[in-house]
Protein backbone atom coordinates (compact mmCIF):
# COMPACT_ATOMS: atom_id res chain seq x y z
CA UNK A 1 0.00 0.00 0.00
CA UNK A 2 1.20 3.47 -0.90
CA UNK A 3 2.31 5.27 2.26
CA UNK A 4 0.70 8.50 1.05
CA UNK A 5 -2.63 7.03 -0.11
CA UNK A 6 -5.64 7.77 2.09
CA UNK A 7 -8.84 5.86 1.28
CA UNK A 8 -11.97 7.92 0.62
CA UNK A 9 -13.91 5.98 3.28
CA UNK A 10 -11.84 5.77 6.45
CA UNK A 11 -13.67 3.28 8.65
CA UNK A 12 -12.25 2.28 12.02
CA UNK A 13 -9.21 0.10 11.47
CA UNK A 14 -8.68 0.92 7.78
CA UNK A 15 -4.99 1.46 8.60
CA UNK A 16 -4.59 -2.17 9.78
CA UNK A 17 -4.00 -3.08 6.12
CA UNK A 18 -0.74 -1.12 6.34
CA UNK A 19 0.77 -3.73 8.67
CA UNK A 20 3.16 -6.25 7.15
CA UNK A 21 3.09 -10.01 7.86
CA UNK A 22 6.01 -11.81 9.47
CA UNK A 23 8.46 -13.21 6.89
CA UNK A 24 11.27 -14.06 9.33
CA UNK A 25 9.88 -17.02 11.29
CA UNK A 26 8.49 -17.94 14.71
CA UNK A 27 10.90 -15.84 16.80
CA UNK A 28 9.12 -12.69 15.58
CA UNK A 29 5.63 -11.27 16.06
CA UNK A 30 3.15 -12.33 13.39
CA UNK A 31 2.53 -8.76 12.18
CA UNK A 32 4.72 -5.66 11.99
CA UNK A 33 2.83 -2.38 12.55
CA UNK A 34 5.85 -0.15 11.89
CA UNK A 35 4.68 0.70 8.36
CA UNK A 36 1.41 1.97 9.87
CA UNK A 37 3.49 4.42 11.95
CA UNK A 38 5.09 5.75 8.74
CA UNK A 39 1.70 6.68 7.28
CA UNK A 40 0.71 10.15 8.60
CA UNK A 41 -3.07 9.71 8.31
CA UNK A 42 -2.92 6.07 9.38
CA UNK A 43 -1.09 6.97 12.59
CA UNK A 44 -3.45 9.88 13.30
CA UNK A 45 -6.54 7.72 12.79
CA UNK A 46 -5.05 4.92 14.90
CA UNK A 47 -4.43 7.42 17.71
CA UNK A 48 -7.96 8.81 17.41
CA UNK A 49 -9.45 5.30 17.64
CA UNK A 50 -7.25 4.36 20.61
CA UNK A 51 -7.98 7.52 22.58
CA UNK A 52 -11.68 8.00 21.75
CA UNK A 53 -12.95 5.75 24.60
CA UNK A 54 -10.95 7.80 27.11
CA UNK A 55 -12.28 11.24 26.07
CA UNK A 56 -13.18 13.11 29.25
CA UNK A 57 -11.52 10.52 31.53
CA UNK A 58 -9.00 11.82 34.06
CA UNK A 59 -5.55 10.75 32.83
CA UNK A 60 -2.43 12.18 34.44
CA UNK A 61 0.28 10.36 32.48
CA UNK A 62 0.78 7.90 29.64
CA UNK A 63 3.13 4.94 30.08
CA UNK A 64 4.46 3.02 27.08
CA UNK A 65 5.84 -0.49 27.31
CA UNK A 66 9.30 -1.40 25.98
CA UNK A 67 9.89 -1.13 23.15
CA UNK A 68 7.21 -0.76 20.49
CA UNK A 69 4.76 0.65 23.03
CA UNK A 70 7.05 3.67 23.21
CA UNK A 71 5.90 4.77 19.73
CA UNK A 72 2.15 4.67 20.40
CA UNK A 73 2.58 5.76 24.01
CA UNK A 74 4.58 8.85 23.11
CA UNK A 75 2.08 9.72 20.37
CA UNK A 76 -0.79 9.30 22.86
CA UNK A 77 0.99 11.46 25.44
CA UNK A 78 1.59 14.20 22.88
CA UNK A 79 -2.03 14.06 21.71
CA UNK A 80 -3.35 14.22 25.29
CA UNK A 81 -0.70 16.79 26.32
CA UNK A 82 0.45 14.57 29.16
CA UNK A 83 3.82 13.33 30.30
CA UNK A 84 5.25 10.04 29.07
CA UNK A 85 6.77 7.27 31.21
CA UNK A 86 8.82 4.43 29.71
CA UNK A 87 8.28 1.03 31.31
CA UNK A 88 11.49 -0.82 30.41
CA UNK A 89 12.91 -4.29 30.17
CA UNK A 90 15.30 -4.87 33.07
CA UNK A 91 18.76 -3.36 32.96
CA UNK A 92 18.07 -0.25 30.87
CA UNK A 93 17.33 2.33 33.57
CA UNK A 94 20.20 3.95 35.53
CA UNK A 95 17.97 5.13 38.38
CA UNK A 96 16.24 3.35 41.25
CA UNK A 97 13.61 0.98 39.86
CA UNK A 98 10.86 -1.40 40.86
CA UNK A 99 11.02 -4.74 39.05
CA UNK A 100 8.32 -7.22 38.05
CA UNK A 101 9.00 -10.66 36.51
CA UNK A 102 6.69 -11.88 33.74
CA UNK A 103 6.40 -14.36 30.89
CA UNK A 104 6.16 -12.78 27.43
CA UNK A 105 4.10 -13.89 24.41
CA UNK A 106 6.85 -16.32 23.31
CA UNK A 107 6.99 -18.04 26.71
CA UNK A 108 10.30 -16.42 27.76
CA UNK A 109 10.80 -15.33 31.36
CA UNK A 110 11.70 -11.64 31.57
CA UNK A 111 11.70 -8.73 34.01
CA UNK A 112 10.08 -5.32 33.52
CA UNK A 113 11.18 -2.19 35.43
CA UNK A 114 9.89 1.29 36.10
CA UNK A 115 11.59 4.20 37.84
CA UNK A 116 10.28 4.57 41.40
CA UNK A 117 10.04 8.38 41.40
CA UNK A 118 7.61 8.84 38.49
CA UNK A 119 4.37 7.45 39.93
CA UNK A 120 2.87 8.89 43.08
CA UNK A 121 -0.17 7.39 44.85
CA UNK A 122 -3.39 8.10 43.00
CA UNK A 123 -1.72 9.14 39.72
CA UNK A 124 -3.93 7.93 36.84
CA UNK A 125 -1.91 6.16 34.14
CA UNK A 126 -2.98 5.17 30.63
CA UNK A 127 -0.91 2.09 29.71
CA UNK A 128 -0.07 1.73 26.02
CA UNK A 129 1.56 -1.11 24.10
CA UNK A 130 1.63 -2.12 20.48
CA UNK A 131 -0.07 -5.49 21.04
CA UNK A 132 -1.55 -7.59 23.85
CA UNK A 133 -1.22 -11.23 22.86
CA UNK A 134 -1.05 -13.36 26.02
CA UNK A 135 -1.27 -10.39 28.39
CA UNK A 136 1.90 -11.21 30.34
CA UNK A 137 3.79 -8.04 29.47
CA UNK A 138 0.78 -5.77 30.06
CA UNK A 139 -0.02 -7.50 33.32
CA UNK A 140 3.55 -6.85 34.54
CA UNK A 141 3.15 -3.15 33.66
CA UNK A 142 -0.19 -3.06 35.51
CA UNK A 143 1.44 -4.62 38.58
CA UNK A 144 4.27 -2.07 38.53
CA UNK A 145 1.86 0.88 38.33
CA UNK A 146 -0.36 -0.48 41.10
CA UNK A 147 2.56 -1.47 43.38
CA UNK A 148 3.67 2.18 43.27
CA UNK A 149 0.15 3.33 44.21
CA UNK A 150 -0.84 4.47 40.72
CA UNK A 151 -4.24 3.85 39.20
CA UNK A 152 -4.56 2.22 35.79
CA UNK A 153 -6.89 4.63 33.97
CA UNK A 154 -6.99 2.38 30.92
CA UNK A 155 -5.20 0.06 28.51
CA UNK A 156 -4.68 0.91 24.82
CA UNK A 157 -3.10 -1.27 22.10
CA UNK A 158 -3.53 -1.82 18.38
CA UNK A 159 -4.89 -5.26 19.23
CA UNK A 160 -5.93 -6.95 22.45
CA UNK A 161 -6.28 -10.61 21.56
CA UNK A 162 -9.06 -12.79 22.93
CA UNK A 163 -6.61 -14.88 24.96
CA UNK A 164 -6.91 -15.80 28.62
CA UNK A 165 -4.65 -12.86 29.49
CA UNK A 166 -6.47 -10.50 27.12
CA UNK A 167 -9.80 -11.41 28.69
CA UNK A 168 -8.35 -10.94 32.22
CA UNK A 169 -7.28 -7.42 31.28
CA UNK A 170 -10.59 -6.52 29.57
CA UNK A 171 -12.62 -7.75 32.55
CA UNK A 172 -10.72 -5.51 34.99
CA UNK A 173 -9.74 -2.37 33.08
CA UNK A 174 -11.17 0.04 30.56
CA UNK A 175 -9.59 -0.93 27.25
CA UNK A 176 -9.32 0.37 23.70
CA UNK A 177 -7.93 -1.27 20.60
CA UNK A 178 -8.23 -0.80 16.86
CA UNK A 179 -9.44 -4.17 15.57
CA UNK A 180 -13.11 -4.14 14.48
CA UNK A 181 -15.19 -7.00 15.98
CA UNK A 182 -15.62 -8.58 12.54
CA UNK A 183 -11.82 -8.98 12.20
CA UNK A 184 -11.06 -9.96 15.81
CA UNK A 185 -11.28 -13.76 15.21
CA UNK A 186 -8.72 -13.49 12.39
CA UNK A 187 -6.34 -11.51 14.60
CA UNK A 188 -6.80 -14.01 17.45
CA UNK A 189 -5.82 -16.83 15.07
CA UNK A 190 -2.94 -14.76 13.61
CA UNK A 191 -4.33 -14.85 10.09
UniProtKB/TrEMBL annotation:
It is found in: Cytoplasm. It catalyses: AMP + diphosphate = 5-phospho-alpha-D-ribose 1-diphosphate + adenine. Its main location: cytoplasm. The keyword Heme does not apply. The keyword Cytoplasm applies. Keywords: Cytoplasm, Glycosyltransferase, Purine salvage, Transferase. Pathway: Purine metabolism; AMP biosynthesis via salvage pathway; AMP from adenine: step 1/1. Its EC number is 2.4.2.7. GO terms for cellular component: cytoplasm. InterPro entries: Adenine_PRTase (IPR050120), PRTase-like (IPR029057), PRTase_dom (IPR000836). PANTHER family: ADENINE PHOSPHORIBOSYLTRANSFERASE (PTHR11776), PHOSPHORIBOSYLTRANSFERASE DOMAIN-CONTAINING PROTEIN (PTHR11776:SF7). Homodimer. Belongs to the purine/pyrimidine phosphoribosyltransferase family. This is adenine phosphoribosyltransferase. It comes from Thalassarche chlororhynchos. The gene is Apt1.
